[in-house]
Amino acid sequence: MEKKIALVTGGNRGIGWQTALELSKAGVQVVIGARTEAQGKAAAEKLQAAGAEVEWIRLDVTQEADRVAAREFLTSRFGRLDILVNNAGVAAGDFPPVGPDHTAAEVSMEKLRAVMETNFFSVVALTQTLLPLLKQSKAGRIVNLSSILGSLEQQADKKSPFYMAKSFAYSASKTALNSLTIHLAFDLRRTGIKVNAAHPGWVKTDMGGKDAQMELAEGVKTSVMLALLPDDGPTGGFFHMGQSLPW
Ligand SMILES: NC(=O)c1ccc[n+]([C@@H]2O[C@H](COP(=O)([O-])OP(=O)(O)OC[C@H]3O[C@@H](n4cnc5c(N)ncnc54)[C@H](OP(=O)(O)O)[C@@H]3O)[C@@H](O)[C@H]2O)c1
């Protein structure tokens, strides 16, 4: 059987790196994106040492030239893309969120724009750039790494366990990403391409911090599951470990 081809953005560390490993273990040919050659090479070597079949490309998702180069690489190397994991992301500051960078009242426009640029605008741009390749797949899958902190319902509900976890720029970027998930799934409803948003959980990474509840291996389960969805799987949903989450 022909191997599926996946691109994982921000694949040099954290959830992206582990997702690349798990997808490779599942028989997928994985390409990881990394912002620098040093990071890409080191991450790919570590993955290969762990038994994964991976290649790396230089991909800063905010850079149009990198996005176009990614499409050219995938076109010439494989002629299609089966799985796009939009994993690369940034926080507005340290977690748990404390201080002005996290508040709607005080966050600078520069910080807000930077977070939106990486977590939202670049995802729209990269996905649009790669859509022609995803359309060449028999069963394209797009996984957007969102967060429960992007759930408007949870952020507004005083009884929610996430009510006090307020990081405006980050949450707004993930809410926008959730909107992309709904709209793109609608646009692609007559194709075989499925688009879903994943909340990985609170995971021990540089972003999640050491107090996070989940180990990496557990924290990538949702994205891996959505990347490998069967043809009768859902599209246009927001999930954590197979459970639907409120928007
Ligand atoms: N950890 C959690 O608890 C948690 C919870 C909910 C959602 N998430 C989401 O899951 C995703 C992965 O998070 P993580 O915890 O693995 O974070 P992480 O450890 O901070 O890793 C983030 C990754 O994104 C990359 N990245 C950032 N900006 C980029 C850009 N402009 N272009 C390309 N790559 C870029 C980083 O590359 P560099 O090494 O070059 O910086 C790194 O590889 C994020 O979207 C995050 O919002 C995480």
What does this structure look like?
- It is a single chain.
- The chain is of the alpha/beta class.
- The protein has one domain: Rossmann fold (3-Layer(aba) Sandwich), CATH 3.40.50.
- Helix content is 41%, strand content 14%.
- It contains eight helices and eight strands.
- The protein has helices at residues 14-25, 37-49, 64-77, 109-134, 152-156, 168-187, 216-219, 221-227; strands at residues 5-8, 29-34, 54-58, 83-86, 141-145, 194-198, 238-240, 243-244.
- An eight-stranded mixed sheet has the order 3-2-1-4-5-6-7-8, with helices on both faces.
- α3 runs parallel beside α4 and α4 (109-134) packs parallel to α6 (168-187).
- The longest helix is centred in the middle third of the chain and has 26 residues, at 109-134.
- The radius of gyration is 17 Å and the shape is globular.
- It starts with a strand and ends with a strand.
- The model has no long low-confidence stretch (mean pLDDT 97).
- The structure holds NADP nicotinamide-adenine-dinucleotide phosphate.
- NADP nicotinamide-adenine-dinucleotide phosphate binds at residues 9-10, 12-16, 33, 35, 39, 59-62, 87-90, 118, 145, 147, 199-200, 202-203, 205-208, 212.
- NADP nicotinamide-adenine-dinucleotide phosphate (NAP) binds at residues 9-10, 12-16, 33, 35, 39, 59-62, 87-90, 118, 145, 147, 199-200, 202-203, 205-208, 212.
Number of helices: 8
Second CATH tier, the architecture: 3-Layer(aba) Sandwich
- Beta-strand residue fraction: 5-15%
Question: What separation lies between the terminal Cα atoms?
Answer: 37 Å
Computed structural class? alpha/beta
Mean pLDDT: 97
- Main sheet makeup: 8 strands, mixed
- Low-pLDDT runs of 5+ residues are none
Our Rg estimate from Cα atoms comes to 17 Å
Total beta strand runs: 8
The structural domain count equals: 1
What is the CATH top level name? Alpha Beta
Task: Indicate the CATH topology.
Answer: Rossmann fold
Oligomeric composition of the shown chains: single chain
Shape estimate: globular
CATH H level, superfamily name: NAD(P)-binding Rossmann-like Domain
Q: Identify every distinct bound molecule in the structure, by name, code or SMILES.
A: NADP nicotinamide-adenine-dinucleotide phosphate
